[in-house]
Model the fold of this input.
Amino acid sequence: MKRTAIILSILVILGVTLGAGVASADTGTITITVTLQSLAISVTGGNWAIATPQAAGATLVSSKFTAQNTGNMSANLAISVADTTGGGAALWTPGAAPGANIFVLSHGTSSTGPWSEVVSVPSLATGVAAGASSDFYLQLKLPSSVTGTGNYSPHTLTVTITSSAG
Done:
């Protein structure tokens, strides 16, 4: 009997102790809203078509181009130019000074300059806010001389504007 009472007492104590740890569940929620950074630009101003033949060494200036930051963050804009296409075997190469089959493409914020050569200063604009735009002009100095097959055929330059986090 004494032994039964002790066992019952132990079971009651265990039941009370174990039962004290049981409770109903409670929940909470967390809402996370994330906006990804978006780098995007659009360039307006059309293509620059130079319709009439030009003399070797001529300097030409474009009309205005506009690069608009269509992303949702500040952006830095850079400009680059590749070797020409067309012209047969006489491709022209960009450089910092005109030469034989070497042209110079520059950019500036007005049609009168000052000009920065794309090869040495590829930065077009820095810290362009989301939704803002940056106007620029291009200046093309043609090669001082041309050589090779097709040297007087039309040449096409491809200019690329890129954006990076600003």
